[in-house]
């Protein structure tokens, strides 16, 4: 994982909302410090344009969703020593991957006056479905501190820390009361990966799973608890079929709840 | 359970604020019950008379709901998700810092933790028993944890007798409540017109002296004793009265571990709200300029992945082994480490488990006292 003292960095965008790139831009003063330690050679949203430059670290936002994406991600991989997928789109296909389980062509026909002008793959897929990914940062969007921690680790020549614990661990460290227990609100926190700092429970609401599945996510047990809290199977399926609908653990849980409905 | 001693004083209801006022005069930051996000939590009191009346909470597995005490008592609630633990064993703090000088040499500096004079008003017998266990862990040997020790030194504890245990409480069966026996500065037992007040330390006695309380009457002392006995008798949950160490250690391959693993979310909420759990992780957080680094300690849980991670493999890869680790440590091997069980019967792990898992029910099945459901 050794990288040069002032590594060359690119930030690429695929099918996405740009929110994860904003995690860089919203760093404020830290962005200036970052710019001194790395050489930002390509970051369209911030200014520098050189998409085919050889880089040490490529951050990739977005999912592979169009025929052009298929070719471009291969090119980026060839030009990058290390490739880091950032955000729910790049790690799980994103919200646009909801079309994977639907008739996407029909949706396009309903929405666009000239659907033939839309060049879109049938499925939206994560970066790791196409090229080797060295590290994944989950989240919708990822946070500034996550980005900084990864860059810092790489600058120091150590592997970034992968925190796959549940959101609950961050929630309890903040002395927040569990909304499932004190208010009976179905919360995705017990199956969702930490990293947001328990943002939603901190605002008195439930986690909706935007950081994707945690390790050992017991979705069966949580779905059963959602049922006891009054959600019917379609509602349970919708809780898992959200921003990270194609992450395997959530996809399986949504399908299972969907089958329960059909019985 | 011990009764208030014969030399207890009587603090009329109207003078409770005087007790808080004296603490504030002595520069204590006073924390008492407050409602936040549907739960009773310990928060700073804005004024001596700011202690709320009539708070109560109904508790059941996976369920905590605020209620109103029809008698408008001050302390008719059993407990909230946290009491003492986060104020001594911080959920997150910096332990030391490294700084690079102009010649590139590293300097290591201790971080002096803030240790405010803190008074906690409304802690319970179970919390005090848990505190004794945390003390045994963090203050043991010749190298006590300085951060914990400095905050411990500055702590003033006003304990109250539990008159209304929750359905999740079982401190009577663990021998830790509901009447505070030791470890407090002042203990209160709330009666209809006031409190039987007992000093448990020199600083507690000194503070009570400033209030010039009349002695509690034999009738008031008897009422407090009966209230404690009734509270103990009203508890519906229990752990087996015997030491569970040997029986649990002989059931490491019991099928119940697989069964509970199907229900357990491995979220770690039980360990976070447990007043005796002390596991933590440490990590380094380098500054972006590459010239400084903080060594940080955070609460960790045996239900997390990294807790079981050794070089090259994980000793507890699945939920079954994590739940087993938690329960076996808490109820069995804690005896080897600290001479008693690590459970004080507060019931927080039951109420705050989002999957409604009941430690007493699991222990009963594992110990062979109850059939598997």
Describe the structure.
The complex is a heterodimer of chains A (263) and B (373). Chain A has 263 residues and is an alpha/beta fold. Chain A has 2 domains: 148 residues, Rossmann fold; 96 residues, no CATH class. In chain A, 37% of the residues lie in helices and 11% in strands. In chain A, strands 2-1-3-4-5 form a 5-stranded parallel β-sheet. By secondary structure, chain B is of the alpha+beta class. In chain B, 31% of the residues lie in helices and 23% in strands. Chain B has 13 helices and 15 strands. In chain B, the strands form 4 sheets. Chain B has a 7-stranded mixed β-sheet, sandwiched between helices. A 4-stranded antiparallel β-sheet of chain B has the order 7-6-13-12, with no helix packed on it. Chain B has a two-stranded antiparallel ribbon with strand order 4-5. In chain B, a hairpin with a 2-residue loop joins strand 4 and strand 5. In chain B, helix 9 packs across helix 11. The mean pLDDT of chain B is 95. At the A-B interface, helix 2, helix 6, helix 7, helix 8 and helix 9 of A face strand 5, helix 10 and strand 12 of B.
Overall average pLDDT of chain A: 93
Q: Whole-Å distance between the termini of chain B? A: 33 Å
**Largest sheet data of chain B:** 7 strands, mixed
Which percent range fits the helix content of chain B? 25-40%
Summarize the structure.
Chain A is α/β, with parallel strands linked by helices and 263 residues long. Chain A is built from eleven helices and five strands; from the N terminus they run βααββαβααβαααααα.
Topology of this protein?
The complex is a heterodimer of chains A (263) and B (373).
Chain A: E1 8-13, H1 19-25, H2 29-37, E2 39-43, E3 55-61, H3 67-79, E4 80-86, H4 88-92, H5 104-111, E5 135-137, H6 144-155, H7 167-173, H8 179-182, H9 219-228, H10 233-240, H11 248-262
Parallel strand pairs in A: 1-2, 1-3, 3-4, 4-5
Chain B: E1 9-12, H1 16-25, E2 29-36, E3 39-44, E4 55-60, E5 63-68, H2 85-88, E6 92-100, E7 106-110, E8 118-123, H3 125-138, H4 146-153, E9 155-160, H5 171-174, E10 186-190, E11 194-199, H6 202-210, H7 218-233, H8 245-249, H9 255-263, H10 269-273, E12 280-286, E13 292-299, E14 309-310, E15 313-314, H11 319-338, H12 348-351, H13 359-366
Parallel strand pairs in B: 2-8, 8-9, 9-10
Antiparallel strand pairs in B: 1-11, 2-3, 4-5, 6-7, 6-13, 10-11, 12-13, 14-15
Helix pairs in contact in B: 9-11
